[in-house]
Specification:
This is LysM domain-containing protein. The protein has 145 residues and is of the alpha+beta class. It has four helices and six strands, in the order E-H-E-E-H-E-E-H-H-E. The protein folds into two domains: 84 residues, Histidine-containing Protein, Chain: A, CATH 3.30.1340; 48 residues. Strand 3, helix 2 and strand 4 form a beta-alpha-beta unit. Helix 3 crosses helix 4. It is globular and about 45 Å long. The two termini are 23 Å apart.
Length: 145
Amino acid sequence: MTMYEFDKSVGQPLDAPLHGEGAEAAKQLKHRLEALGLTHDHFLVEVDGSKVTVSGDAAMQDQKERILLALGNTEGVAQVEDLVDAGQEELRPRFVTVRDGETLSDLAERLYGDPNAGANLLRANEPMVSSLDQVCGGWVLRAPA
């Protein structure tokens, strides 16, 4: 089990609040994963206040990381508990928080010293991010080595 921290004031909003309506919020989060093409029937999403727990099996580590970020980059979510089995549990994802006003090119410059590596960050975070300037400060993204 690994717990990831997120800024609950940023991200995609939900129709149902996380507090008090956990079952409805969990349903909306699972629909969001399905809309992004990141899940199947073997995933369980549970909400307890601002904490989301996801369990099940992922086909690959890449899919698992995208699922964790899609859930965490949701307004109201402060923590995501990772109980997903991807068969590669020894791999630790590299996540990075976007600074206010930063684009993917800026983030690539900060991480890799090369603003042109922004395209790699874009591919690593699709389908949640669809363009180099579509990120917001506070979002947590995948940053492959």
